[in-house]
Amino acid sequence: MPVAKKTFVDMHVHTTCSDGTYTPEEVVRLAVNEGIKVLAITDHDNVSGIVRAQVEAEKFGVQIIPGIECSTTFNAVKNGTRHILGYNIDPTAYEINRYVEKQQRNRIEKVEKILKKLRALGINISYEDVKKHSAGDSIGRPHIARAMVEQGYVLDKKEAFDKYIGKGGPAYATSEYTSVEEVVYAIIASGGIPILAHPFQMRHNTCDEMLEEINNLVDKGVQGIEAIYPEHLEVENFSLVTLALENDLFITAGSDFHGENKEIKLGKCFFNKSRASVEGLKKLGKTIF
Fold first, then answer.
1. Which of 28, 43, 49, 118 lies 20 to 30 Å from 258, alpha-carbon distance?
2. Can you give the pLDDT at residue 79?
3. From CA 106, how far away is CA 101, in angstroms rounded?
4. How far is CA 18 from the centre of its chain?
5. Number of Cβ atoms within 10 Å of the Cβ of 34
6. What percent of the chain has pLDDT over 70?
């Protein structure tokens, strides 16, 4: 019997509209080369790359899932993060654009805080130096790192993060993120589905604490979890899929592709760097397809 072709999917992808290194058009063409037929554009706090990706995707028969990755307030242990992915949003909706505008202001304030700390350490980089490394509106630490490399303060971006701007570093700073309730409202009001991104990156002390946190998020309107993620162990993927099945939650899979800013390649969603398919996700449980 011939093996049926799979529809490969990547539901967590960043472009130059946030902190990726490939433009929306380049990401689509890369997806075509990798045999990926369904692609979610989920830039950090930004929706400006969605239409660009959709226009390019029409040329190749690739389906674009319009999305966003939202940063939220979180008092985490060990510097954990809590991000909410929004899928099937209308990028022109008032609610999601109001959220984006608020977050862009917060991001600018965060960058300025980091630059002030760097200046105190003898590293004199201006906001303009950083901005020229960003092709989009979401300016962040990767762009600061590039400016530091360009001006010879560090040898590479890794050194910039390890020595200065990474979590716990002398120039690290946080921004005033939006509450989960506000993020969930903005996503749902824009026609989307809110999903908890990479749950184990919340870095709770115990699995029970993380599960309790997920239950709290579901009570606040989160409708699913990114159960398949390349930095999760196999047993972690399994536990998240089980949790989703027990609570009728959506299951998603994404690589968290950032181009050259991260090692993970487009479409490599599993811990062993294998690809995810629409058919496989449907077998696992409830999906947005």
1. 118
2. 59
3. 9
4. 9
5. 16
6. 95
Q: How far apart are CA 52 and CA 41, in angstroms?
A: 10
Transcribe 208-273 into DSSP letters: HHHHHHHHHHHHTT--EEEEE-TTS-HHHHHHHHHHHHHTT-EEEE---B-GGGSSPPTTB-STTS
pLDDT at res. 3 = 43
44: DSSP letter: B
What is the Cα 118 distance to its own chain's centre? 26
Amino acid at 120: A
Give mean pLDDT, residues 237-250.
95
* 11 close to 254: Cβ distance less than 8 angstroms: yes
β-bridge mates for residue 84, sequence order: 70, 196
CA proximity to 35, closest of 200, 197, 265:
265
Amino acid symbol at 263: E
Return phi, psi of residue 217, to 5°.
Answer: -65, -40
pTM of the model: 0.87
Residue pLDDT, tens place only, 144-158: 998 999 999 999 989
Using alpha carbons, list the distances in angstroms from residue 46 to 28, 99, 111, 143, 183. 17, 9, 16, 16, 13
Per the listing, tokens 């536990």 go with 239
Token pair belonging to 98: 């109001």
Q: What is the token pair recorded at 60?
A: 């190749």
Rounded distance between C-alpha atoms, residue 112 and residue 99, angstroms: 20
Neighbours of 207 (CB within 10 A): 12
The string of DSSP letters for 115-184 reads: HHHHHHTT----HHHHHTT-SSS---HHHHHHHHHHTTSSSSHHHHIIIIISTTSTT-----PBPHHHHH
